[in-house]
Amino acid sequence: MPLYDPPKQWRPFYHRCGKLPADGIDVHYLGNEFLNRPPCWVMTISREATESDLEENHKLEEVGESIWMVAAEITHCPYCGEHLPVPDVEDHDLEVDLDETEHAGHDAFGAFSLLNM
User: Fold this and answer.
1) Residue 36 within a domain
2) Residue 110 placed within a domain
3) Which of 30, 39, 46, 94 would give a disulfide with 69, using CB separation of 3.0 to 4.6 Å?
4) Residue 78 in domain
């Protein structure tokens, strides 16, 4: 399963294809600014701790704990090659109750844009 299974009204903002790996990679449209750039499609890659990782690293506390995460701005799916169109935000109700504490601390640390290089 990708990193996040979006609510129905958010699905136009997530790309799913048969070639996308089942774990650790998500392709989604980021409507707010990404590193001071306009809204864009982003591929997020993450690595979560396994039982083996816990045995090798005493700083990790539980299976599933995030070890690292990278986000890169993209225009096409790197797996199927499909161009990712800008979704029409006005056609979708994006109001969903989110637990703010669940998303606290998420910032641009470790994120980059290939278009800034």
Assistant:
1) yes
2) yes
3) 46
4) yes
Please state the separation of Cα 60 from the chain's center in Å. 22
| Entry pTM | 0.66
Residue 15 within any structural domain of the chain: yes
* Containing structural domain, residue 46: 8-116
Domain count within the chain: 1
Q: Which two tokens stand for residue 104?
A: 């606290």
Tell me the backbone φ, ψ of residue 83, rounded to 5 degrees.
-70, 135
Q: What is the mean pLDDT of residues 20-27?
A: 88
- Mind giving me the DSSP string for 39-101? SEEEEEEEEE--HHHHHH-TT--STT-EEEEEEEEESB-TTT--B-PPP-GGGS-------GG
Report the candidate in 10, 80, 84, 6 with the shortest Cα–Cα distance to residue 41. 84
Q: Which residues fall within 8 angstroms of residue 97, CB to CB, at 6 or more apart?
A: none
